[in-house]
Amino acid sequence: MIVAVTGIILILFVVGHLLGNLQIFIGPDWINGYSQHLHDLGPLLWLIRIFLLLTVAIHIYVTIQLAIENRRARPEPYIDRQYVKATFASRHMLMSGLIVVAFIIYHLAHFTVRITDPRFALLKLDPLHRYDVYSMMVYGFQCYLVSGFYVLGLFLLALHLSHGSSSFFQSLGLNDKKLAPRLALGGRIFAWLLFAGYTSIPVAVLLGLVKPAQQL
Amino acid sequence: MIGTLDARIPHGPLDQKWRSHRDHSRLVSPNNRRKFEVIIVGSGLAGGSAAATLGELGYRVKCFCFQDSPRRAHSIAAQGGINAAKNYQNDGDSVYRLFHDTIKGGDFRSREANVYRLAEVANLIIDQCVEQGVPFAREYGGLLANRSFGGAQVSRTFYARGQTGQQLLLGCYQALCRQIDAGTVQMFPYTEMLDLVIADGHAKGIITRCLRSGKIEKHAGDAVVLATGGYGNVFYLSTNARGSNVTATYRAYKKGALFANPSFTQIHPTCIPVSGEHQSKLTLMSESLRNDGRVWVPKRKEDCKKPPAEIPEADRDYYLERKYPSYGNLAPRDISSRAAKEVCDEGRGVGPGGRGVYLDFADAIKRIGEDTIRERYGNLFEVYEKITGEDGYKMPMRIYPAVHYTMGGLWVDYNLMSNVPGLFVIGEANFSDHGANRLGASALMQGLADGYFILPYTLPNYLAGQMGRRPSADSPEFQEAESEVRGRIKKMLDVDGNRSLDSIHRELGLLLWDKCGMSRHAKGLHEALVKIAELREQFWNNVRVLGKDEDFNQSLERAGRVADFLEFAELMCTDALERNESCGAHFREEYQTPDGEALRDDENYAAVFAWEFQGRNGQIVPPKLHHEPLHFETVHLTQRSYK
Amino acid sequence: MNFKLKIWRQPNAKTRGKLADYEARDISPNTSFLEMLDILNENLLARGEEPIAFDSDCREGICGTCSLTIDGEAHGPDHPGAVCELYMRKFRDGATITVEPFRVRPFPIIKDLVIDRRALDRIVQAGGFISARAGSAPEANSIPIPKHDADLAMEAAACIGCGACAAACPNGSAMLFAAAKISHLSLLPQGNPERVRRVLKMVHVMDAEGFGNCTNTYECEAVCPAEISASFIAKLNREHARAAIQRGAGE
Q1: CA A179 vs CA A186, C118, C231: distances in Å
Q2: I need a surface site. Which of A2, A3, B11, B385 has the fewest CB within 10 A?
Q3: pTM of the model
């Protein structure tokens, strides 16, 4: 239940975040404006950030606890094990989740705290005196290694959500026999749409479709 | 020597007997009830409902079952339904009609008073089960649905898909769970009763073996209730669960309880035919299938090997419809079974070994559509397909009779108490209500009637005079019984011969099926008696039981049960031999009408045969016969005709 | 048909077990899996070896006693159905078949393939019933129940209590078992008075028995011999949330 509720919050964030980021395709003005807008929120932004981090923490804490209980529920594993219906994604939620956490930490260090890439410090403000998020993203993704890690992280996030995004309906009791297969399919489509949306940015950068707005 | 038994049937008009009996039975006051300990062996419909109800009343109940959970008792496998005279269909049903159908179905070999009481309380059972949450089938209007069943011209059977027994058992299991939680019932799963303890002439305890640890235990109580089901597994192959056995009732018999009508065994007409020699059990297809299925065989022997679709309508013999036009495919079980045997004996059987007849749904599918048939019997068709690999919607099913239910059991009086005071016997384990043949959907009715609505009135009547008479489980009677049990187990383990249990049991089963099955004759029964004694020799000299006594040991469990079957089989054949008439499921070939129907001899055999064990020191000697004459005050004895 | 068998042998709860190799020869395709084990046991007995302990009773798929994991699947590869309804014709001739018990902590192994499932009884004892004293029931037709509800209740009530759901669940969760009982009883008007208490107590006892948690993998419904739908777990979650809120609100 707690996992489901925190999960929904995080899913909503992931959707919002994607919509924000996709503005990169419209141009620097949009996304820089969006970023400035968020920064202008001041203390409210920090509240949201703390709330989200707390949500992540609870989501992880509870799931690890549950996972420990689950492990204890079968002290002696099967020697031979075949699954009939349980998908790879559903059986490896903890693994995919933990790697996604590692990815998020890197992602925050990369684009929010900006300590991993010294070049970001060299970026000038944009013509409207806003931080040039647009160029930051483009430079950030120009490195194959970084983009590769992003794609991997997003892949695992999608895997996680391909189960998680329909699973919460079940956990909250919002499911029935007719709905179940549709929700499962819907969840999968939703997760891979997110994947496509997010990865479109590094891919576009690497293909040179999006170019930096300023030279370093 | 023949003694006459008194069934203690209350006086008065038939429809007043039970009420007046209840009004005059002794009671135990609520605060005294917890001072009584009642031992109940078995947790099926009868035992489970009795344990739950007595627990509700405040008695301290110890309930024993050999399964790992009371929910697994074999009542769970009953499919078709449960009868009651609610007359919801407005088709003229009444308590009297249910009574009359049941007593006629039993070929007039059961007690009027018992059967009438059964019909009376049947309606209460439906009320009780609905309240417990049994999901009976319903109509769109939300009211309960009924279906019709063999041996009745009204629609009075309540059902829950093809899993009525399961749902009724779960209802009573849940009631039992509630009492376990409340602390009034203590449950002993994995525990088998191996002997009855009698102190001062009263049944006051049992000796058990824990099947997990092998530990032998002594349990004392103020009364002992046996609800241990039937003995169909004496035939090795039957529709019973593998674990069903005669041990508890047979041990009680050896301690002096009378065994009544042991030869009355019901052969169910609609089972899946035997397919191989290693088959371990037979699977029943609910009789309700006969509502819509038509039974037939080819008219000519030559056609038997042909695929059924290639046999034209004109060459088919719908023999039940031909012989019994008014009941047709719904003729009672004994009659349908025997008719199937007859056509197969004539060489017109179908399937492997020629032991099968067709049950055809083609007409019903044409009339009401495959979907309706699927809705009514879908799970039965699935079972059939799993076992045979054939699709019952596309081609007719093959069915053949199989041993299913045993009408015989320990003798009980109107109070359901055996001749041993304090020993009560309920459900299939007693003999009381079905005479020589049980009608469909009546077993569930009887089990629950006994447990919910009869024993809770008749047991206190006994207990009221027993305050403070419970012996200690360490008294000499218990010690003696315990050492007997231990001696017997040791003896079985010490044989260390070469024959497996299953091979002996299988041989016994085939012998009985042949000589004491759907039809019997004196010569065959005499032969069987000789062979049974030989097999018993074989067992005690050459059986191989591995493992230890004080351990989980499935071979040892089974060995004890087979040993009892080997003695019990003799009792069955003796009873069949003694009854020189044909009635219901007991068909003696010497006694039949010119057109092959059972020929009763009401002059000499309108009686219950109850047998008293006579052996001492391990010797088996012929048992002593007691008669309970059956008096029919209300119904007229007629030749049972379903034509 | 011939088969190579790898069967779990374990003398008792305390001793560690292991897989042992056996062979079954000349088995008819119409033999059931349990009959094949019967035959194997007869052969073991003839050689003076102790037979393999395994549970079964009705052998027609309704009592829920049989409980084997065959080739890694609870009740074997022929779903839906209990092991006793599994026939050798479903296997390839010459196949190697692994047989293990149901493995989940609340079902300790007694011997070989036999497990102790009394934990399931304790869950029902916690409230899986409608308190209806014999003799006090109203006339059966006094409360009409829509056919749809009665049918749905029947679907849930069809559970045979075998424990395959917990055995197959990657997390060892018995949610499907509990959900079936809770759904059955809460779908009927008779079950309404105890609805809140029932779900809270049953779930509490289920957790205390040491079953794992449901992560919605639906492996349970895939192996369930009674085809209980995992949507009843959603219903259980709904019932539990509703009950927790009601109880929390002090109602």
Answers
A1: 10, 34, 9
A2: B11
A3: 0.95
